[in-house]
Amino acid sequence: MSRSIGDIWAYLAASPLLSLTLTLVAYQLATALYERAGRPALLNPVLVSVVAIVAVLTVTGTRYETYFDGAQFVHFLLGPATVALAIPLYRQFDRVRRSAVAIAASLLAGSLTAIASVIVLGLAMRVDAVSLVSLAPKSATAPVAMGISEKLGGLPSLTAVFVITTGILGSVFGPFLLDLAGVRDPAARGLGLGTASHGIGTARALQESEAAGAFSGLAMGLNALATAILLPIVWHLVFG
User: Fold this and answer.
1) What own/partner pairs with CB < 8 Å and gap ≥ 24 does 236-239 have?
2) H-only helix segments in 37-155
3) Is 147 within 8 Å of 231 (Cβ atoms)?
4) Residue 52: which of 35, 33, 72 has the closest Cα?
């Protein structure tokens, strides 16, 4: 009996449909739990679904490569979803134009803070150079961060882990910290979430309001560009 169950699982695990179904079901259940519990920060749907999927893969002994064969269909949709962020941004374009100077100043400050804080803390904790440069672009969106890391001698796979972790932590604790700091303006909240925690933070900002989501999407894209320019300069200034 146990052998037949194992054979069935082996057959299902080889099907891309299983990974796709697991991903969608995990996120839907996590979202339902989040809403039912009153939207507490620690039950962020992304965090809960990631933990659930990792648990399933670990218990079943499924390799990540096997899982991703099916999950790549969801991964593909990240591109259209990112492009779709232009819609709320277009609706907020007049406000963005009026706030151009403030946006540029906050973006520069946020990008430099994200880079400098990693380097300063890393040096203080005597983190090796490879790990440090892999961590430094953590606040940029994953494809850009991995490219920067690789060019500077880091490990793109390690960078991806740091980027995802940063996004989850930012979406979980970012709104709470903004409330604690008394930041109420949707544009300011969106800029903060997008700059610090890229796409996952933007998804959280969209839950607050369209304005917050628009400014977060803008900050996510501009911070990726700023990090690609600033990090190599800062890195070479510090480490020669």
Assistant:
1) 238/119, 239/129
2) 45-60, 64-76, 78-84, 86-91, 93-98, 100-124, 129-135, 142-151
3) no
4) 33
Own/partner pairs for 127-136, CB < 8 Å, 24+ apart? 129/153, 129/239, 130/154, 130/155, 131/155, 131/158, 133/235, 134/158, 134/159, 134/162, 135/159, 135/162, 136/231, 136/235
The chain-wide mean pLDDT, for the chain, equals 86
pLDDT in tens, 53-106: 999 888 888 887 788 877 777 777 777 877 787 888 888 888 888 989 999 999
**Over the range 94-118, which residues count as b (16 or more CB within 10 Å of their CB) and which as e?**
eebeebeeebeebbeebbeebbeeb
* Residue range 147-167, pLDDT digits in tens: 999 999 999 989 988 998 899
Give the global pTM.
0.79
Task: Note whether 73 and 192 are within 8 A (CB).
Answer: no
Question: What is residue 72's three-state secondary structure?
Answer: helix
Instruction: Identify the three-state secondary structure at position 61.
Output: coil
> For residue 80, what are the CA distances in angstroms to 62, 133, 209?
29, 30, 20
The encoded tokens of residue 54 equal 């990792």
Residue 78's identity, in one-letter code, is: L
Whether residue 148 contacts residue 236, with contact meaning beta carbons closer than 8 Å, is answered with: no
